[in-house]
Amino acid sequence: MNRVFSVSTRLLAASLCIAGAAGAAAQGTIKIGEINSYKALPQNLVPYKQGWMLAQEEINAAGGVNGKKLETIFRDDNANPGDAVRMAEELVARENVDILSGVTLSHVGLALTDFAKQKKMFFLASGPLSDKVVWDQGNRYTYRLRSGTYALSASVIAEAVKLKKKRWALIYPNYEYGQAAVAAFKENMKKAQPDIEFVAEQSPPLGKIDAGAVSQAIADAKPDAIFNVMFGSDLTKLAREGKTRGLFEGREVVSLLTGEPEYLDPLKADSPAGWIVTGYPYANIDTPEHKAFLAAYQKKYNDYPRLNSVVGYATVKAIAAGVQKAGSTDTEKLIAAFKGLQFSSPFGPVVFRPQDNQSTLGIFVGRTTVQDGKGVMPSGTYIDGAKLQPAEEQIRKLRNPS
Q: How far apart are CA 129 and CA 148, in angstroms?
């Protein structure tokens, strides 16, 4: 009798183990492979990852998505497209991720856009600014969260036209992002102000600006206003050298990205004052969505968010909303679910446009100032990304139908 009982007990225990394993497998996780330039861009990607993890923890604490918890496997692309593709292959083949996401640098974003097409893998690009990701080289597998170069340039046109300045100088990094930003600015300014003149262009290699020579060349052209696209360490050098040489005195400056804390913080008291910029006035966004995000971020990290904190946070929220709508991580179901998908971000409701897989996450435009020895963008006007895109006919011509 004891032997029978013992055998029965073992069989029951075995069946419970099998049932438990099946239950765990049913619950499982949704695995996201995230690829980014963590070592190359720490000022951007430390805040980005913090925003990402905050969103993931909030979602998991609320029960996950379709009964499954989110899990992210992070990889560094070394700011190199080849490395990014190798990381993607490893994440798909070895880690069996369900979704690929991430990327800040445009050339890396384009490489992973092509990888997604070749491997038929869903890819949500977080922040590469090149519009080729969703237009010229776009494909059905690739979506993008952050507004791109065209939208950034279009966002400042109204304020630039109000200046009524005729002679403009252009400063931009000589690669895809800088070239595209200047082309979009020229196109839109000529439409809005036909008598505009572009009297000087300086396009140093990315990360290698000779700020003294650039400042002198611009000053020699005697422009009424300057359109700047430099960012990061190049912006720091330009702002400091231009200030020393008096380049910005009596001249209006319109500058992309400069109002983001990531780029103002390193300048400290040398931050430019009075520039019209795109950026992130985190302390004065008076909406329920942003107030909740700001409070949660400050509580968790004892720090203020940067724009990339919002990008990381919103990327995870978008993935969760898409998976929930799809009811699956199947690629085809995700593609269908993201068409017209609406989700909530710290900037309010965002939609993924069916015509080009681009989200309508918007852009803040305002002016910089210096407070307490630090550059800030104290306020700004939010422009919905849906209002900053080219005409539908132009997108159809650009968009790869694959």
A: 4
Instruction: Please tell me the pTM assigned to this model.
Output: 0.91
Helical axes 331-338 vs 307-326, angle rounded to 10°: 110
pLDDT digits (tens, 9 = 90+) for 62-96: 999 999 999 999 999 999 999 999 999 999 999 99
Give CA–CA dist 152/134, Å, rounded. Answer: 15
Report DSSP letters for 102-134, one per residue. Answer: E--SHHHHHHHHHHHHHHT--EEE-S---GGGT
Which residue's structure tokens are 């800040």?
A: 104
With 0-12 / 13-18 / 19 or more C-beta atoms within 10 angstroms meaning exposed / middle / buried, residue 162 is exposed
**Whole-angstrom distance, CA of residue 236 vs CA of residue 229:** 12
- Sheet of 381-383, strands arranged across: 197-202, 167-171, 225-228, 252-259, 276-279, 363-367, 381-383
Q: Which helix (H) or strand (E) holds 90?
A: helix 81-93
Q: How far apart are CA 184 and CA 290, in angstroms?
A: 30
